[in-house]
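dumping this here before i forget
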Amino acid sequence: MAKKRGKRNSRKVVKKVLSSQKMVRSNSKKIGLVFKNLILFLVFSLIFVALYSISSNEFMINLFFLLSVLFGFVTLAFLLALLVFLVLKMLKR
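structure:
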């Protein structure tokens, strides 16, 4: 025996389409968070540079060099993010 099909719900879901894109806003929490991370990774990078210079084992020299370069690039990324947020804050005024 075939099952009876019930009436399908003919309600349509209407999605609202935003006509304008979301604007990126900078607030003090975001700027503070980026600044804290910038300082943290800068300190880590400087520690690894110091360990690189005083290390005598070749493996440790290579390891500390790679870590210092990696943390240096992350520091630069946070510096760029901080500059972007500061420019957005100035444009807001």
